[in-house]
Amino acid sequence: MSGEWTAGGLPPVAAARTAEARRRGTWSSALSTGEFTAIRSVGFEPVGQVLGTAVYHVAGGGSSWRYYDCGYGNASWSGRGSTPAPVAVSGQGAASKALVDVLLAARHAALARMTAECTALGGDGVVAADLTMAPFPSAPHCFEFQVIGTAVRAQGAVRPNRPFTTHLDGQGFAKLIAAGWVPVELLVGLAIGTRHDDWTTRRQNWFGAGNQEVTGWSQLVSATRHDARARIGEQAWHTGADGVVLGDSRLRIWREECVRARRRNSDSDQKDHVAEATLVGTAVAGFTVRQEPPRTLTMMSLDPNRRRARVT
Questions:
Q1: 177-201 per-position pLDDT tens digit
Q2: 45, 35 Cβ separation under 8 angstroms
């Protein structure tokens, strides 16, 4: 039966599990006691733990230049007086864009399946959603993308148009609701930047350089982080949200053989540095609560004549 699934809708195992949960009427969650009580204090209750997974094969290169092409014209020879190396950023059409696209597509597939489980359980959204990526065993170019959280349902009659997702835990979610904001969607901003270690960078980093800034690497980190922020901002705008509450910000940096230089000279020892910036956050939107009329202050006069006059 599982072999008939073509990646559309819920996987058969997940569909059977959610149907059984609805039939029994019991729910499970990974919420702590504090998170559980916080969610109930703002009118929500858990309906079940939900999970979305996707295994993707990520090929070694999207083109003959691979993903980490630095795009530097003088990559095979960078000496005194050569033009500074640029930063090739995925958001500006660099070769790494193909890698960013497949990594985001895998995460979105996992998120969509988790949201589908939430809908199957009758939930209005998912809190405490945790995104992870791990190598798939015995498959060197495959990765498992997983997101797990707890589906919740509002106790009132008002339902959102579509389930929300958020990385916020139970207490964070309760504080957000109490402050007049609602989560809209869990977002991931990802960017990859590649920069060739040009002559200036090598001079600023050699053992006798002394204390000074390595300007090329500062540009690499700054441009990559800026691109990740721009990507998550674009996603938030498409959801119609007012802003983003960030939950996690990571930056990985490593060194690669310069594929552009080695293509021209297989004996080249030129190097590039690669930065990968990942931002995880939740798009949020404000809502207006109904204003209750101010309560009048009841006062009792100590003057018996005035109290008698009020009665008559």
A1: 999 999 999 999 999 999 999 999 9
A2: no
